[in-house]
Amino acid sequence: MVIDFHTHTFPDKIAEKTIMQLSKICGITPQNDSKRSSLLASMRENGIDRSVVLPVATSPKQESSINSLSAELNGRDGIFYAGGIHPDCADVCGTLDFIKESGLFGIKLHPDYQGVHFDDPRYVNIMREAAKRGLYIVTHAGIDVSFREHVHCTPDMILNVLGQLGGLIDDRLILAHMGSYEMPGEVLDKICGKPVYMDTAAVLDLYPEKCFEIIRKHGADRILFATDSPWKHQGEYRKIIENSPLDDGEKQKILSENAERILFG
Question: In terms of DSSP bridges, do strands 83-84 and 106-109 run parallel, antiparallel, or are they unpaired?
Fold first, then answer.
């Protein structure tokens, strides 16, 4: 079993235009056109049994459509969805209740695309209420290639949130990009050993030695296999884990068991 815990798709009518716009902004060539059908084709071609799609609400107006579509498609063809919520959400509790009642495992936050720091009081409130409902919180962490001049989620901000919430989100917070994108030194010094999950999205091929150093220090029990598809190739990332010096038990935890625990309890 292999589960890719960090992928992105867009509705067919806007997929090609959206992914090309994002490609120009970030300077990265996508592996496919970001349609759901293309993710399914990639999964079949690369031996990925399940994928998790992480939509981002870049305005409060998008929340309803994102969450309704996520609820409709969740679990179909082996693809699972997070819910979306914006820091300026007018009804945080109502939105989170809908996400929970719809059977979605959690929410996705993106401080850069949502224009707030990770330890902003609005985010802290959202995370507090999400955790109360048993939801997981996935966040972009570290540098975003489209916003290099200003990092909205640093390891210090993550520590601040963990301190403010006093254990409420322990093992509920999932930090994308191995704890903080392009900040592995700070992750090793400040985040490893904390009660958080990290995913491997978009970094395994950039600095693999540092990634495996983080895995060894943090522990395979809290690492999730992830690619950031369509920005990275699912098959190539799978091979990096399978051909790594990790033992078979660690590989299985990372490739599927940890994700199964989050998705299915």
Answer: parallel
